[in-house]
């Protein structure tokens, strides 16, 4: 830990003072003392009042990320162990820990890092320089804490390949941490088995945040004809099939994803009722409508159409189009499950966009449920970035 300290401008730091963890470059009056990028520094208000400890990187717009608010809790081995242990104890209390997100960055007061557990394998993603330097210690403490519960981790894979690392002055990286191992891992979610490829799959290999949303949608699917759009490796589709759907069509533009989805279908003995097609959903939905196809349940789980405020307008067009097309394929009285995983598509804007799509499709929506991300991806109040996933389940009825 360096002896350097950051002083905020008068009137700045409102976010961090109200519980947030980020301090932006334009909020800083001065940095006093020598330090290296990524070092832990202390943070003071304009009048010298101590605000906490955090790691600094002057190359990033988010210049300081807070780690501790207490002067007598410096960022050391003991603090890291407490953060890790608290995170694991929370998961044990609220979720199935066979596969789950063990560390969720700011929401677990370890800003800039996420760690997913797939059976006996960990997958880490580090997004900021300061936390990258602490990553070996975090992983060491996590292995120790898990071992206390009899969980032996056989391998760790890193998926720190996001572009945001370039803004931190870091290279993108994917690879083993420690000894190599078979990167195709068998997991079970809601009683459904999946092969997760932690090296080649999207993000950390599998989207754990929809676990309980998939179970909620599956309850509507017994005996039904189901369309799952943007199926990735078949997660919603296979949950629907396992729940007793009469037939399921899963669609994704990724050939790799579709091949893996088919493997997962066979793994669960669902190859006869659940099939997958490689296609662009935006092209396929109008085609299905033209052919007169309809479904009892339509699921829309697209990737984030926007990752910045500047592209929100274009994202709205995409969400409106996909929802309008999806609604037109739902039988009268059937169901639509529609998602947005973009933080910048806030709940109010998402709801407004769906409403506009319903009007364009001449449909009426009866809300069944509104859901967010699974509880192993906790939403930390005062940290807006931790709230990103929205899912509505509607009954769709024709205009009277």
Write the layout of secondary structure elements.
Elements: E1 5-8, H1 14-17, E2 22-24, E3 28-32, E4 40-44, E5 50-56, E6 62-68, H2 77-94, E7 99-104, E8 113-118, E9 121-126, H3 129-148, E10 155-160, H4 164-167, E11 173-177, E12 184-189, E13 192-197, H5 211-218, E14 225-229, H6 235-242, E15 247-252, H7 255-267, E16 274-278, H8 281-290, E17 295-300, H9 312-328, E18 330-340, H10 347-361, E19 363-371, E20 390-398
Parallel strand pairs: 1-4, 9-10, 14-15, 14-17, 15-16, 17-18
Antiparallel strand pairs: 1-3, 2-6, 4-5, 5-6, 7-8, 8-9, 10-11, 12-13, 18-20, 19-20
Helix pairs in contact: 2-3, 5-6, 8-9, 9-10
Structure overview:
It is globular and about 70 Å long. Strand 4 and strand 5 (50-56) form a beta hairpin. The protein has 400 residues and is α/β, with parallel strands linked by helices. It has ten helices and 20 strands. The strands form four sheets. It has a seven-stranded mixed sheet with strand order 16-15-14-17-18-20-19, with helices on both faces. The termini are far apart. The chain has helices at 14-17, 77-94, 129-148, 164-167, 211-218, 235-242, 255-267, 281-290, 312-328, 347-361; strands spanning 5-8, 22-24, 28-32, 40-44, 50-56, 62-68, 99-104, 113-118, 121-126, 155-160, 173-177, 184-189, 192-197, 225-229, 247-252, 274-278, 295-300, 330-340, 363-371, 390-398. The mean pLDDT is 95. The longest helix has 20 residues, at 129-148. It has three domains: 5-68, Roll (Archaeosine Trna-guanine Transglycosylase, Chain: A, domain 4), CATH 2.30.130.10; 77-181, Transcription Regulator spoIIAA (2-Layer Sandwich), CATH 3.30.750; 186-398, Rossmann fold, CATH 3.40.50.
